[in-house]
Design a protein that fits this description.
single chain; about 450 residues; alpha+beta; MetI-like fold; Immunoglobulin-like; 2 domains; 5-stranded antiparallel beta sheet; 4-stranded mixed beta sheet; about 50% helix; elongated
């Protein structure tokens, strides 16, 4: 009976002698992980969290930091026209720069796949990423210089302009006061003779203000041309430099040694209307033939005296922001192309081949297959660039000259200028910093959520 009771008794619960050591190992692992993460957390707190909290607190005080003003600095931001201009320019950057970069990166990534030297081409486009914004700003400040002798862009623009339109050879020429021909300067910069000339007559139009060294190479002496007579149905004459090298000579008369002015446009006017036009020869001579009887006035149009074309004012108030965005595109296009190219290489090729088998052309494949499949990558690139352009500072500060700095300013430069660049109002500068942080945080949160979704 006793043996039976012993057999039917329930066995004791099994003991787990290894559970306590596992807890100790797990606790020790957590401690080791915290110790490894602690330096990074300390740096994050010192370099990010503390400055953010300090800026928020400092934005609630006045410029001296001694008087609490609450939200006054935030109200002042939107009352200041310069700050409003910075907000407007930042909005232009956010809309234009990421859109252009994403589009350029997509187009280049697709095209690079179809060339043999794709790696070399990607390397060339990505190389500007290795250049600091400071160096890139200096390079583009020189490239955008308005002087064609310094700025490479204006040198190219001036060359193209002068090739198709030409430029005046005599921008400094002017009529001598009291000369015999009685040239009168008009409001548009042209010169018209005061005395009329009839067919069979001639006129000598003397100008000064041209250095002999600046005369065209084909310029010839004007005296032989001045002695020629005109036919009965012609009006002739000479346009010459009324200056005798070495001195001497009589003003208003063509003297020996005085040079003609070739390539000068001359017009014949009747009742204030142009009836004939010609260009002077190498000796400055000109002829109008087949004219009706009657008096004519002679005119030297303003285009003869137009100053040389100086190109485009890239860094003027109108174009300074697009010019800086152009420099930014040069730096970041390679970044967008490489990221989008990585996404492009991961696309399922069977979908593209199936579309080609069904008769789709390359444009249809690009628009209806490539772009939709790349949408997640394009979104990440676009949002990353939005975050980046909100913080742009170096290029704007370096490229924009002082007089137009206000026209090109963005929130980052305005924050620095208000705080340290002469404004000395760190309360308002801190408020601008907080505003910039609030604008960047939503884009950062969106990007982080995209990354987490892609990992799932």
């Amino acid at each position: 009976m006793t043996a039976t009771l012993v057999k039917e008794a329930s066995p004791p619960a099994p003991s787990h002698p290894d559970r306590a050591p596992r807890r100790r190992l797990r606790r020790r692992g957590r401690i080791v992980a915290v110790l490894f993460v602690l330096p990074a957390l300390l740096l994050l707190g010192a370099l990010v969290v503390y400055p953010v909290l300090f800026s928020v607190g400092r934005s609630l005080f006045d410029a001296s930091g001694t008087r609490f003003v609450g939200g006054e600095n935030y109200l002042e931001m939107f009352r200041d026209p310069v700050t409003l201009k910075a907000v407007r320019n930042t909005a232009i950057w956010v809309v234009i720069a990421p859109t252009l970069l994403t589009g350029l990166g997509l187009i280049l990534a697709v095209l690079v796949e179809k060339i043999r030297w794709a790696t070399a081409f990607k390397l060339l486009l990505f190389m500007p990423m290795a250049v600091s914004f400071l160096a890139a700003g200096i390079v583009f400040r020189l490239a955008y210089d308005e002087d064609p002798d310094k700025g490479v862009l204006n040198a190219a623009v001036v060359s193209v302009h002068d090739t198709f339109k030409g430029s005046s050879s005599y921008p400094t020429a002017r009529a001598r006061e009291g000369d015999g021909a009685g040239l009168t300067k008009e409001a548009d910069g042209s010169y018209v003779t005061g005395a009329d000339v009839s067919p069979g007559g001639t006129a000598a139009l003397g100008l000064v203000g041209v250095a002999p060294k600046d005369l065209p190479g084909e310029a010839a002496p004007a005296s032989p041309a001045a002695s020629r007579e005109a036919a009965s149905d012609e009006v002739g004459g000479v346009v010459y430099l009324d200056f005798t090298p070495g001195g001497g000579g009589e003003p208003g008369r063509v003297d020996e040694g005085e040079s003609g002015l070739p390539g000068m446009k001359v017009e014949a006017l009747r009742d204030g209307r142009t009836v004939a036009s010609t260009t002077t020869g190498s000796d400055g001579s000109f002829r109008f033939t087949g004219l009706d009887d009657g008096p004519y006035a002679l005119k030297l149009p303003a285009e003869n005296f137009a100053p040389p074309y100086q190109g485009v004012s890239w860094l003027g108030p109108t174009l300074v922001t697009p010019a800086i965005i152009g420099a930014y595109l040069w730096i970041w296009t390679g970044f967008a192309m490489v990221l989008i190219g990585a996404g492009l290489s991961a696309l399922p090729r069977d979908a593209l081949e199936a579309a080609r088998m069904d008769g789709a052309n390359e444009w249809q494949i690009f628009r209806r297959i490539t772009v939709p499949l790349l949408a997640p990558v394009l979104t990440v690139v676009f949002v990353t660039l939005v975050i980046n352009v909100m913080k742009v500072f170096d290029l704007v500060y370096i490229i924009a000259p002082g007089p137009v700095q206000e026209d090109a300013t963005v929130l980052a430069t305005q924050m620095w200028l208000v705080s340290f660049g002469g404004g000395n109002d760190q309360g308002l500068g801190s408020a601008l910093g907080v505003l910039l942080l609030l604008l960047v945080v939503p884009a950062m949160a969106f990007n982080i959520r995209r990354f987490r979704r892609s990992q799932r």
